[in-house]
Amino acid sequence: MKIIGGVVVLKGKSSLHKKLFILVLCVCLNVVALSSVFASTETKAEAQPAKTVNDIQGHWAEGVLKEWQQKGYLSGFEDGSLKPNGKITRAELAVLINKSFDFQQTSNVTFKDVKSSNWFNQDVAKAVAAGYMKGYTDQTFKPNNAVSRQELAVIIANLLKLSPSDTADRLPDTKNSPVWSKGALGAVIDAGLMNGQDQKFRPLDSASRAEAVSVLDRASKLKDTYTVSYNKAGVYGPASGTETVKGSVKINAPGVTLQNTVIEGNLVLGEGIGEGDVFLKGVTVKGTTTVNGGGKNSVHFEDSVLVTVIVNKKDGSIRIVTEGATSVQQITLQSGARLEESNLTGSGFGNVSLSDQLPANSLITLAGTFETVDVIATSIRVDLTSGSIQALNVASSAGHADIQLAAGTSVNAMILNAIANVTGTGSIGTATINASGVTIAQTPGNVVVGGNVQATVNGRTVGNTSGTTSGGGGSSNSGGGTPSVPSAVYGFGGTITDVNDLPVANMTIKFRKGVGAISGDVAATVVTDAEGKYTVVVPPGIYTGELVKAGFITTYVVGVSLTDRYNPDQDATAIKVPAADELRIVLTWGEKPRDEDSHLLGPTPNQHSFHTWYGGKQYYYGDKLYADLDHDDVDSYGPETTTIRKTVDGTYTFYVHNYSGNFDGTQTLRNSNAKVEVYSGNSATPLKIYHIPVGYGDELYWNVFNMVVNGSDIQFQDKNELTSVAPTHELPEYSNISAAPELNNITAVNNVGPHDTLTVKGLFPGDKVKLYHDEFVFYSDPVAESSDTAIIQDLDFYPLGETIYVSVISPGLIESPWVEVRVLPEEGSDIPNTTLENELQKVNDHVVVPGLTTVGDSVYLTNSEMNEKAELEIIHFEPVTVQDTVYLELDAASNEIKLLQFNTSGEPIQYRATVKVTVGQESDTKVVTITLPTLREALNETIFAVESLENVLILSDADKHSIETAREIYNNNDAAEEALIEALKDMCSIWKFYTNRS
User: Which residues are CB-neighbours of 824 under 8 A, at least 6 positions away?
Assistant: First the structure.
């Protein structure tokens, strides 16, 4: 159905079309009495009857809306529709957030407009308790108010506790935003949660339901949010195989078993566990595990891999048990605890740190085999009840530690840098005493006493001003002379992992003395164990270790051997060779600057550019990863790696940024010894090597190379220059809008009968073509992985030809702009003749601008469609009754008259247009008078039209409320101009939503 110049042109035969036709005709007849007729923009109306409907098929947010339906977050309206383009209210938004973020806690709310009987009462209470929404100063919540985009930004920023940002200053329509929203606007833009189009954010526009769901979906996937919460006892996770949680997990109830799960983010064992038990079975946590709850019975880690664990149970009564193949690389205790290993086949607890946050008199009980225990806390008690400790270190900042070694236990190396009291009958290999006042009840195998230190070992005083060493008897040397004190050799150790933080076993490490020593004599060679760990015993100094293993690129680890203690955590990342169809860029550098950053610019399939860096490490097109900064090093040396997973024809640019800056003049890029190597397809030999230019200069950017891709052909353009300004890409920045198809790649074949085809080439895998033909919409299948073509078959174009519109929807992106395509007639078809006289009669003498016309809409001058052979041109346009203010304007580009602003003058305004109609070689002109009704007349007409929709359609409660509000504003003779305009906009939005659905 089309409404052109007040005349309804009906296509199709559905009963609903007929009902809607009658409705619109009735509206037109009634509006004529109000001196107005419908002449709105050309629309397609295929409204649905009161039955189950699917109004998200083909919508840009179809995927995420379906996903949220499946999760139970969205239930829709009574007729089954979701109304994705409708405005979302504050109450509706609260419901979505509470469901998707699993907020359960409520607070007592006393808002004037929120009653206990309201369906949204509990959700408002949850929103206030969670702190992401609050009421207004007049003690109202305004639950039925539409949420603007800037309000949505504030709510999301509150929800995720995002830090304010000044990024809003960069967009013309947000740089002057109010203080209450400006910081939040910048924060959500920085986080990639919301963005604008064409340099506009549209902060005052109402957020649609689809927009709200999409933003919340992105918010829920941020790494620092709990994507999964377990608040009830039960078994979670698959019985077999593994399930991956891309975000974080919180367990907040006793009796929970989590099994066969990989957690990409963090794990929190919350205080809600109380004194109960929690079991992790076959769980890998790549982030940090924080233990705030659990009882004396235990938290069990069985066959699990945890990188970092922090324990902070307020009363210190917690037992943590590692079982089976479990490994815990680092555990930090901020409260008392019992750590126990049971039936262990894995490495169990690795490094144990007793934090300075431990309260005085805390009890730490250890039972198992521990690699390193570092005591940093003061006045605590450490009991080793069974097992052994390879190295126990008491820091100089600690003191008054009581260490008890039960019978049968052992400590290989005990280094005491502060006062400590060691008791029990467990054995000690070597005790190094560097603080006076130490007491050791046992007789260590070897005792090393620092200078000016005296201690008591097995009841005897040891040490003097020069230092003492004593053997198994533990006797002291307090006589004259200077006894010989051998140098203690401790060495260092660490863990080698890949970019996914998984241990690399059986990797050979060749250590050479010195920073950057990659050739020459090898001081020591070690091999990593099954957990990727290594230990090397070498004299004090700095060493460079060469990492060697088949399938890995040769990289290096820098380790420091100290003079007074074993040095753990000399870790490094090993870099695998890229896959057969990948390119990997490896950046390494020296000690300074501490942090150098890799930046890759490249082309996207939709003719924009992407940028991978520490602030945006991954570039996806749809659901496919095209490039990523897969390892970001921030602590000197590197390596830092960027991988191109899938190439796109065009130019790539790689550059390095000195993130540390150069504040003291010593951290220049030129003096960093930086090197970039490019590897391709299963090869450990670099394709290209770049060394940073040396010399003088404090530039912050190293422009390394351009890489031009043309199919399988890859050419490098060496840059190797230092600049003060970051390089840029020739293409505009990445857009979430799909690229429109090129007209010369579109072929429409019009055969006899329903056997027509549409073919679109130049696409990418996963792309879908959308065809607008008559009043119907057709979709192609997604483009296959190895193809660039989509075909829609069995179409039936008009025999005489027609105009169709074609767009592309790329995975995860918004539909592209439409491309107009002219379909030629079937072969042998005759196009009927048209006359200039007939076409001229289709142009109205007088047009009244319909109330349903909003700012930016076109005003049409014809009463029916012009023949395709006829051309219409507006050759002159002028105001008649107004001079100082422009309400209507001729847009030269489209040759259409546009509404620039509503008529707030209080009187109807007239314009005059001269129209030229051409058919073949003949042409003629016609003068058209255009009347623009007043704002109040337009509002009244529009309210009447929208109210009439209820005769054949089911309107939402929110829309009904909007109609009532608009009528109240119209009836108020003192209503502000702004209120009248907002009411008119609301009515137009509702009308277009219900009549434009296809």
Answer: 748, 750, 801
Token readout for 878 is 């002028």
Residue 539 · residue 567 · CB < 8 Å: no
What is the maximum span of the chain, computed from C-alpha positions, in angstroms?
129
User: Mind listing the pLDDT tens digit for each residue in 673-701?
Assistant: 888 999 988 777 888 999 988 777 778 89
Which one is the CATH code of 577-723: 3.30.565.10, 2.60.60.30, 2.60.40.650, 1.25.40.390? 2.60.60.30
Which runs of E-coded beta strand occur in 711-760? 713-723, 746-749, 756-760
Q: What is the pLDDT of residue 717?
A: 92
Distance CA 898, CA 875 (A): 15
CB 861 within 8 A of CB 841: no
- Provide the token pair at 260: 């066969």
Confidence of residue 849 (pLDDT cuts 50, 70, 90): very high
Burial of 822 (0-12, 13-18, 19+ CB in 10 A): exposed
- Residue-wise pLDDT for 648-667, tens only, equals 999 999 999 887 775 555 57
Q: Are 492-575 and 836-934 in the same CATH fold?
A: yes
Query: Six-digit token pair at 45?
Result: 């109306």
pLDDT tens digits, one per residue of 436-454: 999 999 999 888 888 788 9
Joined together, the tokens standing for residue 547 give 């990492």
> Which position has the token pair 């052994």?
388
Domain ranges of the chain: 62-220, 228-470, 492-575, 577-723, 743-814, 836-934
Q: Can you tell me the distance from the alpha carbon of 396 to that of 379, in angstroms, rounded to the nearest whole number? A: 13
- Residue scoring higher pLDDT (415 or 500): 415
Residue 817's pLDDT band, with cuts at 50, 70 and 90, is confident
Q: Are 48 and 997 in contact (CB under 8 A)?
A: yes
Q: How far apart are CA 960 and CA 947, in angstroms?
A: 9
- Rg from Cα positions in the chain: 37
- DSSP-based three-state secondary structure for 891: strand
Long-range contacts, 280-287 (Cβ 8 Å, 24+): 280/304, 281/257, 282/237, 282/242, 283/237, 283/258, 283/259, 286/262, 286/500, 286/501, 287/223, 287/248, 287/263
Write b or e for each residue in 772-794: b if 16 or more Cβ atoms lie within 10 A of its Cβ, otherwise e: bbeeeebebebbeeeeeebebee
Among 387, 415, 385, 388, residue whose Cα is nearest residue 401: 415
Number of CB atoms found within 10 A of residue 539's CB: 13
pLDDT of residue 97: 93
Q: Per-residue DSSP letters for 571-639?
A: -EE-EEPPPTT-EEEEEE--SSSS-EEEEEEEE-TTS-EEEEBTTB-EEEETTEEEEEEEE---SSS--
Check: CATH 2.60.40 for 836-934?
yes
Mean pLDDT of all residues belonging to the chain:
82
- For the full predicted model, state whether its pTM sits above 0.70: no
Distance CA 139, CA 34 (A): 41
How many angstroms separate the CA atoms of 476 and 774, rounded?
Answer: 102
Contact indicator for 802, 837 with CB cutoff of 8 Å: no
Give the length of the chain.
998
The bridge status of strand 327-333 relative to strand 348-354 is parallel
Q: Quick one: which of 903, 890, 925, 893 has its CA closest to 848?
A: 903
Give the contacts of 459 (CB within 8 A, at least 6 positions apart). none
Angle at 155 between CA 67 and CA 166, to 5 degrees: 115
Residue 58 confidence class, pLDDT cut points 50, 70, 90? confident
Q: How far apart are CA 445 and CA 426, in angstroms?
A: 12
For residue 939, how many C-alpha atoms fall within 13 Å in the half-sphere facing its CB? 30
Instruction: For domain 492-575, give the fold.
Output: Immunoglobulin-like (2.60.40)
